[in-house]
Design brief:
- By secondary structure, this protein is of the alpha+beta class.
- It has a single domain (7-223), classed as Gcn5-related N-acetyltransferase (GNAT) (Aminopeptidase, 3-Layer(aba) Sandwich), CATH 3.40.630.
- Helix content is 31%, strand content 22%.
- The two termini are 23 Å apart.
Length: 235
């Protein structure tokens, strides 16, 4: 994989910063840790079996760094830190839902330091991260291009505003155009109607797969339409 080239994604309300950049922002690490210390967030996203806990800054950095090593380094995709679009930016979508900012158009250090962080959204190769190993009798995993997991988490303070959908939609569109992803998968707790609604709005449907082997979870998929080719979203 070629060396990481800094970029960001802007939507009408949000700025998405790849975690290889955001990991160095203490306010983002603090937000990420606070989400996983929030009982409502953990119960909604991960189920009652995932207890909320307080992470130190060192632990938080290590967890984000592990994700970077598993995804950004080998595949060129992964988690994005999600913040509110700075007031200093007037984002032009050119008729699209997002733009990719490169080079001189990326955020300045001062803008980065003043972002109001609200969560994360990203994709990962589920076969090397979240899925349990195959057992005897299981079908082998498909190629990673059709096993890309979508994940997102927004602070409860911002629930109900459509921000999770806005962030995830931008990441999905970027991944189709820039990384050639052909199918996305996801899992939710069966009682998590909020995330299920977001996934349906993104075009996902219940897949009936049993990749995660968890009775409490529903599994979803979104197959990229054949006519969706690469789109130039660069700015």
């Amino acid at each position: 994989m070629s060396p990481f080239q800094p970029f960001s994604i802007a939507t009408p309300r949000l700025i998405l910063i790849p975690t290889p950049i955001a990991i160095n922002q203490f306010p983002y690490r603090a937000l990420y840790a606070s989400l996983h210390a929030n009982t409502d967030f953990c119960t909604m996203g991960f189920g009652a079996h995932f207890p909320a806990r307080n992470w130190s800054d060192e632990e938080t950095r290590a967890i984000i760094a592990r994700e970077i090593a598993r995804n950004w380094e080998p595949y060129g995709f992964g988690d994005f830190a999600v913040g509110l679009l700075p007031g200093t930016r007037e984002m032009s979508t050119r008729g699209n839902d997002f733009v990719v900012l490169h080079g001189n158009n990326t955020l300045t250090p001062a803008e980065l330091e003043n972002i109001k962080w609200i969560g994360y959204a990203g994709i990962r190769d589920a076969t090397t991260t979240s899925l349990p190993p195959r057992e005897e009798g299981d079908e082998p995993f498909l190629p990673w291009q059709v096993m890309v997991e979508v994940r997102y988490g927004i602070s409860p303070e911002f629930w109900g505003r459509g921000l999770a959908k806005e962030a995830a939609e931008a990441v999905i569109s970027w991944a189709i155009g820039e990384r050639g992803v052909r199918r996305f998968i996801a899992e939710t707790e069966k009682g998590n109607s909020r995330s299920g609604k977001v996934l349906r709005e993104l075009g996902f449907r219940l897949s009936g797969t049993d990749y995660w082997k968890e009775e409490s979870q529903a599994e979803w998929e979104f197959v990229v339409p054949v006519e969706d080719g690469q789109r130039d979203m660069s700015s």
